[in-house]
Specification:
Blueprint lengths: L1 E5 L4 H11 L6 E5 L5 E5 L7 E5 L6 H17 L4 E5 L19 H12 L3 E5 L14 E4 L2 H9 L7 E4 L5 H11 L3 E8 L5 E6 L6 E9 L3 H12 L4 E9 L5 H6 L5 E5 L14 E4 L2 H11 L2
Parallel strand pairs: 1-4, 4-5, 5-6, 6-7, 8-9, 8-11, 11-12, 12-13, 13-14
Antiparallel strand pairs: 2-3, 9-10
Helix pairs in contact: 1-8
The structure holds ribose-5-phosphate.
């Protein structure tokens, strides 16, 4: 028997995953003490059970992460046999190395703290870098959300799309999409000079192409929007974007709305503003069935 517990930032997704998996949602109170410390109480018998915890850490990553650590600790102390932690978007994933001396490897520390809190297994979706799996020493399942975006894109009449990585870090993603479609990919080489100036150099033939910009994360939207403007200048006849994790911080939504991107496909690994889907340009793809499948594979 298994139970799903939701962190306060993943209530909608957890309810959908519960429906798809048939695993009931457990009762947990998540409140704040007057001094703003988090106050958690699990209101369910979990002794000897395999439990699942789902949390999202976008918006207020530090606070939601702390809530997750405390929820895992509470479940461990209440006697749960194992705790499968589902973080569809892995927080701090882009800080996976010491890029400049004096920096931490934040993603590594997040993984260690999850383990230390009591997470026995992990599920995440489309990791920023594959090596993140190795930061967690226990079983880790990376789900490929890209497959759902591919299924959705295939329902639309693209003749011969050109998948474009908006920076070199996304080449593997563009290659994977292109392989699935049996078509080609191109890259935009984005380079920041020591003066702070950003140079974007397209590598590939864009004239007349149906461009599909692909990335794992869209945060401020700047990378995708600048890439789209460049593709348009280079003669692309149609520009679409597909990303797994639509963080859409600051004015990303407005930037995308006024950009040459015609349609922006994203999975609902992280919550977005409700108003987003009022715009035809934004199309959400449901990630819950894939997460439910992943949970089924990880719990006995
Ligand atoms: C970079 O490594 C990522 O793949 C994304 O391209 C980047 O994080 C997007 O950030 P933003 O939307 O703020 O440009």
């Amino acid at each position: 028997m298994s139970i799903i517990f939701s962190g306060s930032a993943a209530l909608t997704l957890s309810a959908k995953v519960s429906k798809h998996s048939g695993i009931p949602l457990g009762q947990v109170e998540i409140k704040k003490f007057p001094d703003k410390e988090i106050n958690i109480r699990v209101r369910e018998e979990v002794r000897g059970q395999e439990v699942v915890v789902i949390q999202n850490c976008t918006g207020c990553p530090n606070s939601y992460l702390m809530e997750l650590f405390l929820l895992i600790d509470a479940l461990k102390r209440a006697g749960a046999r194992s705790i499968l932690t589902v973080l569809p978007y892995f927080p701090y994933c882009r800080q996976d190395r010491v890029a400049y001396s004096g920096q931490p490897i934040s993603a590594r520390l997040v993984a260690s703290l999850l383990e230390r809190a009591g997470a026995s297994k992990m599920i995440s979706v489309d990791l920023h870098k594959g090596q993140l799996e190795g930061f967690f020493d226990r079983p880790f399942l990376q789900l490929i959300g890209r497959k759902l975006l591919i299924e959705t894109l295939k329902k639309h009449p693209f003749e011969k799309p050109l998948f474009v990585a908006p920076d070199v870090g996304s080449i593997k993603i563009a290659r994977a999409y292109a392989k699935d479609f049996g078509t080609d990919f191109a890259v935009i080489d984005k380079h920041r000079h020591h003066t702070g100036e950003i140079e974007m150099r397209p590598i590939g033939e864009f004239n007349g192409a149906e461009v599909i910009l692909v990335d794992d994360v869209c945060s401020t939207g700047s990378t995708l929007v600048q890439a789209a403007i460049l593709c348009e200048k280079k003669g692309a006849k149609k520009i679409t974007a597909a990303v797994t994790h639509a963080l859409l911080v600051d004015d990303a939504e407005d930037q995308i709305l006024t950009s040459p991107i015609e349609t922006f496909y994203y999975t609902d690994t992280v919550p977005v503003k409700e108003e987003l889907n009022l715009h035809d340009k934004f199309i959400s793809v449901d990630i819950a069935p894939l997460i439910a499948e992943g949970i089924a594979a990880m719990v006995s």
